[in-house]
Write a structure and sequence with these properties.
The complex is a heterotrimer of chains A (240), B (253) and C (243). With 240 residues, chain A is an all-alpha fold. The longest helix of chain A has 32 residues. Chain A starts with 8 loop residues before the first helix and ends with a helix. Chain B is mainly alpha-helical. Helix content of chain B is 73%, strand content 2%. Chain B is built from six helices and two strands, in the order H-E-E-H-H-H-H-H. In chain B, strands 1-2 form a two-stranded antiparallel sheet. The longest helix of chain B has 43 residues. Chain C is of the alpha/beta class and 243 residues long. Chain C is built from eight helices and ten strands. Chain C has a six-stranded mixed beta sheet, sandwiched between helices. In chain C, strands 2-1-4-5 form a four-stranded antiparallel beta sheet. Chain C is globular and about 50 Å long. The chains are: A mainly alpha (240), B mainly alpha (253), C alpha/beta (243). At the A-B interface, helix 6, helix 7 and helix 8 of A face helix 4 and helix 5 of B.
Chain lengths: 240, 253, 243
């Protein structure tokens, strides 16, 4: 009773990603809303910091501010991404097709990761330019690739856990609110680790590399545990 | 109705044990500090050292009565540990529900989560009292307190999630998935808050004088009895409610 | 179309129950449906129609009993079964921000079809949407959506097609088109339709099933059914239904 043709998970995975990219390139809905929202948050930061005085070093809290932008913009993107699947019942169409459930999870999660990374590529330099570029110690700081690694590990966790939570929240009343309520406490340990890691690199105090690597190990540990859990639980969420 | 009686007995026993432990703590702690010992790390080990500004002037002054705030310890730590245990129990019922799809497992997970939330809130309240008395601040982002704060938020999120879904089975599945994630997340949160580089001095150092162990164990047992009592009481209520639902449906049919 | 192995039955349902606690969505449902038949499932809201459809289309699992579709068990052989069934719902199940062609291409990839281009072209012509194939689905009328949705369901040449209230929200003209499209593919396929619409359902079906409170009230071949009597039975069931 073997199926006549082999279903290829890789082909299905690529199809899901390509579909999300084509849709995004056409509507630019997610990227514009996430990007614009990020810009608005930057303005709010400026207001918040406007009375901080000349002695205040934004660099001290820059990592936290940066991750705050991403956590809120990712909420926006995650919700959108799953609403697309839910709106016209497309998720049902996927579920009755011969596709392994994990392929759907990985397809959606990788798509979300991609969009988040694109937003980060635009926001990080802008953030640096606006808040850190003019500071007296502009040239201080560790290598850029360290920041990139921290951004990647953080975004990985956000996209993975976020995809699972967004799949649940689109089926509830008050989608976006529920997503935020579920998402932020679960993200807490990861955020703490990546903020500490990013901050270590930005400040580049003696011995920062050791702190950085310890934090990256924690973030990677969180990603591993939570992504495995999300992967294991996704099938239950889809089946409900 | 037998369940309800059990619940009442358990709550009474629990209340009795925790109260007893509280007063015992005065007794044992006093024995420990009896005889003009300097406020050194040997004394209030259960509670760590008070910051300098709270120590009696002159330093090294003889010290007769233990800090009253130390007594919170015999409430705070047992309730905190019990709350974590109940969260794990809730996650176990959640796993059972996902596998077997029996509605009673969902109800048990929910009621366990309620009990855990009550305990976490008690932990937070006693924690705030403690930080105020001990460190002279209302709130301190100390690893344990922070973890419990996050746990409280996750538990509240659990109930927000439940309330936003109409359909029984879907509600059960989503809630179970989130409960499992929350139970995995709580220890990770604790670990990370512990190792995160921080500017705050480490004020809390636990260690036990042997004489304090007995009231602590009694308090812990009392708290577990209380927890199980609350759980049983709520379960019997839920079961009753379900029976009413079924009866209603039968009448309509 | 390959011949189905071993069995003549498209559907074989045995003691099928789907319960959650005291709530019985399906209660010991049992029936057989031959290959090539058209089954209409009727029943009041909450009678278990959509649950039955969900079990048969492998979206949910039975609590008790078994269901075999095309000789394949809905739990054990779910993956193999999914390759051989299609779904047409009142929801279009299409992405509004993709063009007609892109939508079909996406699902062709999901089903891992060989030569998708040809198949898609052929189907678009069949549902008379070839001239709009590059337009976004967002701009389509309800009737066009439904036609494209049929093309999507037929893409991988399924042997059994599930219809979930396909007529709801369609104007009479769109209904006619849907009718004729179903008539075109009627011969080679087995259909299972869930519907509120009594006359429409009876008109199309070869077998009729009435569900109430999850249990089978009536299962009969169309030829043995008297329309008036059937309507009376149905009304009686709705009367005792969950309002």
């Amino acid at each position: 009773m073997a199926p006549p043709k082999r279903m290829s998970g890789w082909r299905q995975f690529k199809a899901i990603i390509r579909k999300d990219i084509v849709m995004e390139l056409r509507t630019k809905e997610m990227l514009t809303s996430m990007g614009l929202y990020a810009l608005l948050v930057l303005v709010v930061y400026y207001i918040a910091l406007s009375q901080a005085g000349a002695n205040f070093q934004v660099r001290q809290i820059a990592a936290g501010l940066l991750w705050l932008v991403f956590i809120f913009t990712s909420l926006l993107g995650l919700n959108r991404s799953l609403v697309h699947e839910k709106d016209q019942g497309c998720l049902d169409a996927l579920l009755i097709s011969p596709i392994d459930r994990p392929v759907i999870f990985f397809g959606k999660a990788v798509g979300n990761l991609l969009f988040l990374l694109i937003v980060e590529v635009f926001i990080v330099p802008l953030f640096y330019f606006i808040f850190l570029g003019s500071q007296s110690n502009a040239d201080v700081g560790g290598p850029v690739w360290m920041i990139v690694l921290a951004l990647f590990l953080g975004s990985l966790g956000i996209a993975g856990v976020g995809t699972l939570l967004a799949t649940m929240s689109v089926n509830t009343k008050g989608k976006d609110f529920i997503l935020a309520v579920l998402f932020i406490p679960l993200m807490f340990p990861l955020l703490l680790a990546v903020v500490a890691g990013t901050s270590a690199v930005l400040l580049a105090e003696p011995g920062y590399a050791a702190v950085f690597w310890q934090m990256m190990a924690l973030a990677a540990g969180y990603d591993t545990v939570m992504l495995l859990a999300a992967y294991g639980l996704y099938e239950f969420v889809l089946g409900a | 109705m037998k369940q309800l009686k059990v619940a009442i007995v358990l709550v009474l026993v629990g209340g009795l044990l925790t109260t007893a432990a509280f007063f015992m703590a005065f007794f044992t702690a006093e024995v420990q500090t009896f005889g003009t010992v300097t406020l050194d790390k040997a004394v209030d080990t259960a509670f760590g050292l008070a910051p300098p500004e709270l120590q009696p002037p002159g330093g090294g002054v003889s010290y007769q009565r233990p800090w009253f705030s130390q007594k919170i310890f015999y409430f705070h730590v047992p309730v905190a540990e019990a709350s974590f245990l109940v969260l794990i129990i809730s996650a176990v019922f959640s796993v059972l529900f996902l596998v077997k799809r029996r509605p009673q497992d969902d109800t048990k997970a929910k009621v366990a989560m309620e009990t855990a939330l009550i305990f976490v809130i008690l932990t937070m309240i006693t924690g705030v009292l403690w930080t105020r008395a001990s460190w002279n601040v209302w709130w301190e982002w100390e690893p344990r307190l922070t973890t419990y704060f996050i746990m409280m938020l996750m538990m509240i999120a659990y109930f927000v999630l439940r309330n936003s879904i109409e359909e029984d089975e879907r509600r059960g599945v989503y809630a179970a998935v989130f409960a499992i994630l929350a139970a995995i997340n709580a220890p990770i949160s604790f670990l990370i808050t512990r190792v995160i580089p921080s500017n705050h001095p480490v004020v809390f150092q636990s260690g036990f004088a042997g004489s304090n162990l007995l009231p602590f164990i009694i308090a812990q047992l009392g708290m577990l009895a209380l927890g199980y009592g609350i759980y049983t009481a709520r379960m019997s209520e839920e079961l009753l409610r379900e029976r009413v639902e079924v009866a209603k449906e039968e009448l309509e049919g | 179309m390959t011949e189905t192995n071993s069995t003549e039955c498209a559907l074989e349902v045995r003691g099928l129950s789907r319960t959650f606690g005291a709530r019985k969505a399906l209660d010991k449902v049992e029936f057989d449906l031959p290959q090539g038949a058209f089954l209409s499932i009727f029943g009041p809201n909450g009678a278990g129609k959509s649950t039955l459809l969900k079990v048969l289309s492998t979206l949910t699992t039975p609590s008790k009993g078994t269901a075999r579709v095309l000789g394949l068990d809905v739990v054990a052989d779910a993956v193999a079964l999914r390759e051989r069934m299609g779904l047409i719902s009142h929801n279009p199940l299409l992405y509004p921000d993709l063009s007609a062609e892109e939508n079909l291409e996406f699902f062709a990839e999901i089903y891992c079809l060989e030569n998708p281009k040809e198949r898609i072209r052929e189907l678009l012509v069949a549902v008379e949407l070839d001239h709009r194939r590059l337009d976004l689905v967002r701009t389509f009328s309800r009737g066009m959506l439904q036609r494209l949705s049929i093309a999507r369901a037929l893409l991988h040449a399924p042997e059994i097609i599930f219809l979930d209230e396909p007529y709801s929200g369609l104007d009479p003209h769109a209904m006619d088109i849907l009718d004729s499209l179903i008539a075109q593919v009627r011969e080679q396929h087995t259909f299972v339709m869930v519907s509120h619409d009594l006359s429409k359902g009876l008109e199309l079906c070869s077998h009729a099933l009435i569900l109430a409170k999850g249990a089978v009230v009536l299962f009969e071949e169309r030829d043995n059914i008297d329309a008036d009597e059937f309507a009376a039975t149905y009304r009686a069931t709705v009367g005792m239904g969950v309002a």
